[in-house]
Design goal:
about 150 residues, Immunoglobulin-like, four-stranded antiparallel sheet, two-stranded antiparallel sheet, rod-shaped
Length: about 150
Amino acid sequence: MKWVITASMVLMMLCGSVLGATLNLKATWTPPTTNTDGTPITDTLTYNLYETDSGTNVLINSSPITTPGTSSSPYLFTVTVTASKTLIFAVMAVDTVDGNDSALSATASYVYTAPNETPNAPASLVVTMQPASSSSSTSATKGTTK
């Protein structure tokens, strides 16, 4: 019984990832031009994109984003979802010289609505009597013991 439950759980985990929708999204933002003290930014910046809808910040990019996502060159990324939900994202600038992180940007959201993939009901069902077949008839014999 333990094996059946474990196998069922593994199957559900595998199917959950297979049945999820992969969304191809793009992000754009305006890079900062000044530091928090008002001085111009002279260091090189990289960026981190986070999904923040779960209450924690989950890093989207696997390596630092080296150029800001702009309208002419957006940052392209994918996320996998298994149900309708609102995805919330924020971006952070990272000073590559000093290692200082900015605060998270204002958030942007993307609403994903899962398609309604409920099948239509079958049509044209017909039920008729099956004629008796001599080859499929059976007989029972009552046995006796002495």
